[in-house]
Every structure is written in structure tokens, then in C-alpha cells.
Amino acid sequence: MKNKFWFLTKLSFKKKVATKWFAGAQILMLIVIVGLMNLNSIIAFFGGDFSDETTIFVVDNTDSTFALFELNFDTLNNGISSIRNLVIEQTDNLDLAKEEILNSNNLIIQINANEDNFIKAYIISDGQVDAITLQLITSSLNTTKSQIALHHMDISLQDLELIYSEVELTHISLNEDADSEDNRAMILSVVATIVGIPIFMISIYLISMIGAEINEEKSTRSMEIIVSNVSAKVHFFAKLLAVNAFALLQSGLLVLYSVIALLISRSVSDTDITGGVGNALSKIWESLSATGFISQLWYIIPLIILMLVLTFLAYSLLAGILASMTTNMEDFQQLQTPVIMISLVGYYFALAATAFDGAVFIQVASYVPLISAILAPGLLAAGYTTIVDFTISLLLLVGLCFILIKFGLRIYKVGILNYSSDKLWTKIFKATKDAS
Fold first, then answer.
1. 197 and 323, same structural domain?
2. 99 lies in which domain range?
């Protein structure tokens, strides 16, 4: 029986991997991921001006606006310097500036005095002005106008600098042993996102694949041949093992493609395409070290891995049981949607977990099987729950898997040879009653 189990597992896994379609899809995904993460270099290679320097000539007819405008422009431009290479330059010769912008992306900003609105500005270009640059210029001009208006109200330049300077904010906790709430929120948000998104994507992937494969075998009547040679139990678990192995393989390949794309991007460009994720992770690591969480990872990581494995098993069991009661993908999609909605609820809870601020509701939600793997690790890392809460979530998940195996397998035995497509929900309730 063991030989038959591994034979079915290998056959199902090989059917997914050893095909030209799989190889072609992997090549395509690698090209797409590398291309997206190296978009700047690709645009530049084909003659694009993505990283070319754009000079903005400023003609200040007010004789007092350029200094403020330059300061505001540089402040805003620092935030997008990795996207647009913009340089600002003052000039008094409008005609010469017009010659400089011909057949180029350079611009002219002419600032005139205006009695009704303090200043009025014109943008002169040889072609289109992209939305990012236009928004940057507009915001800088609006801020400059506000400063000029305050200055006309007899407010000195020193006072203006004080008005527009950033507030220095320092967090003081009355409880010296407590972590900063800002750090806890950051830890919860990042960990929940890093853990939640893969679980959400893989669970949807597993549900769809199991449903498609079981319905394919039922529609081609090959199911009858299979169950006449092996038990329904062997077929069931061989199918689940093969699909989970393929899902993990595909996830690992996607991570590998992302690493390759990142290495290529680092070698051809100095742009930080991660958006500062590395710095954020470093801060989180420091915060976790300060709380002593890092010293507990030797037993927390195995528990998290166990929870992930059990969660994927639970989704697979549920998908296989429901798929056995259907004869085509249209019927399975009726049952698939509620299961996906459960995973979607957990995903949204993970994204909004920081807003709950350790509320009892989100702690109780972390106990619920199928979504506990998305919530529990982040809450534990941020200190909102303890290892006892995590253990409760794990035990409840084990209980759900036990129930699905014990009672779900009986439904599977009844359903895989049931080819009736009428009254789907009635058939499910009848199978449940017969299985009991």
C-alpha cells in the first residue's frame, strides 16, 4: 500500500512539473520578475530618459521668490530623487533658456508678481511634462506662495522658518519596561504582512489546484480506475501531498527569481528598488532584540513552521473534501468561494491588526483555525499575545485537522464516485449524513 501511495504522489507531482508548459511558465515568470525589478535599466537601454538629468530653468521676475521656491523644491525632490533626476537653475535670460529646452526634456518656470494671488507662474516646455514633475512643481509653488503671503503680513523670514520647520516628536513611556507602541505597531504590521501574504496566496493556490485535479479525474472517469486499485484514503493523501509539494516548489522558485532579479538590479543600477525595506527590517530586528524575543526563536520558529504546515493541511483537506462532491469546476467554484473568503478575512485582519492595538477581538481572532497562522505570529512578535495564546491557536488548528481527517475522509469516500450534478448542497448534506 505504501508503494501505491508514493506511486500516486510521484505521478501527480510529475504530471505538474515534467511538462513543457511548466518549464515555459517558469521562464516567463523569471523574465517578468527580472524585467519589473529592472525597469529603469530597461527603459534606459532602449533610449529612454528615465534617469537622464532634467534641468528646470527658473526666471524669477519678482526678484525675491527663487530662494524660497528652490528650498521647497529641493525638499520635495529629495523624496523622489530615485525616480526623477531633476536639477533647478536660476536664469535671467528667458530667450536663452528657450533655446536650451529645444529638443529636450528641460523646462522653464517663469514666476511673475500678481496683485490678486501674490505670484503667477508659467511652465514652458518643448513637449509633454510628466505628471510627477508637474505635481512637484505645483506643490513647491503653492508652498512658496503661502510663505510669501505670511511674509507680507510682516512675519520675518526667521519666523517663517520656524513655522515651516518639522515638529520634534519624542515618545516617553511611563512604563520603562514596556516597548514603544510605535515599535510594536511596526513589528506587527511587517511580520503580519510578510507571513500573511504568502499564506493567503498559497492557500488560494492549493484550493484551486486540488479542486481542478480531482474534478479532472472525475470528468475523465479515471477516478473509478484509481479507487479500484487503491483505497480512497491513499488516493486522498497522495493527492494532497503532491499538490502541497508543488505549491511549496513554486513558492520557492518565485523567491529564487526575486533574489536573482534583485542581484541583477544591484549590479546594473544604484537605485534602491526595495523602498527602504532593508532599513525597516533592521529596525525591527533591533526592537525584537531589545524585548528578548530573539532569544526565544529557537522554540518559536518550529512552532510557527508547524502552524504553517497544519494550516496548509487544513486548507488542502477542506478543498479535497469539497471537490469530491462536485463534478466540474463550475460547481467547485460555488464551494471554493466561502473557503477563500475565510482566508481573505484573515488577510485583511493581518493588514488592519495595528488598528486594533491589542484589542481582545483581534486576540480571539488569532485563535480561529485557518486564519490563526496569518495573525498569531505577528501578535506574538509584537508582544500583544504570549506563547500560551500561540499554543492555544496551534491546538485548535490540530483539532480542526483531526476533525477534517476523521469525518471528512468518510465524505470523500462517498463523494468521489458520486457523479450527480443536481442539487449540490443537498448532495453535500446527504453525504455528510451517510458518512456519519
1. yes
2. 53-164
User: Count of CB atoms within 10 A of residue 68's CB?
Assistant: 21
Q: Judge contact between 312 and 244, C-beta under 8 A.
A: yes
Count CB-CB contacts under 10 A for residue 135. Answer: 13
Does a structural domain hold residue 22?
A: no
Number of structural domains the chain divides into: 2
Domain limit, last residue, from 109, 139, 164:
164
Grid cell 521656491 in the structure block, residue: 69
Residue range 233-248: mean pLDDT, rounded = 85
Q: What is the CA radius of gyration of the chain?
A: 30
Task: Please state whether the predicted TM-score (pTM) of the whole model is above 0.90.
Answer: no
Give the model's pLDDT for residue 32.
84
Nearest C-alpha neighbor of 397 from the set 381, 374, 379: 374
Per the domain annotation, does 40 fall within a domain? Answer: no
As a whole number, mean pLDDT of residues 111-137 equals: 84
Q: Do 269 and 375 share a domain, yes or no?
A: yes
Residue 260 within a domain: yes
Cα dist from 171 to 93, 101, 183, 328, whole Å: 51, 49, 11, 58
Parallel, antiparallel, or unpaired: how do β-strands 85-90 and 107-114 relate? unpaired
pLDDT at 399 over 90: yes
Q: Which pLDDT value is given to residue 396?
A: 94
Residue corresponding to grid cell 486540488: 210
**pLDDT tens digits for range 247-282:** 888 888 888 888 888 788 777 765 555 544 555 556
Going from the C-alpha of 275 to that of each of 244, 271, 278, the distances in angstroms are 32, 9, 8
Instruction: Tell whether 48 is covered by a domain.
Output: no
What pLDDT does residue 395 have? 93
Distance of CA 44 to CAs 38, 83, 213, 273, 304, Å? Answer: 10, 13, 44, 16, 44
Percent of the residues in the chain that have a pLDDT greater than 90, as a whole number: 3
Contact 195, 375 (CB under 8 A): no
Q: Mean of the pLDDT values across residues 306-313? A: 89
Q: Enumerate residues 6+ apart whose C-beta is below 8 A from 35.
A: 42
Compute the mean pLDDT over every residue in the chain, rounded to the nearest whole number: 77
pLDDT at 178: 47
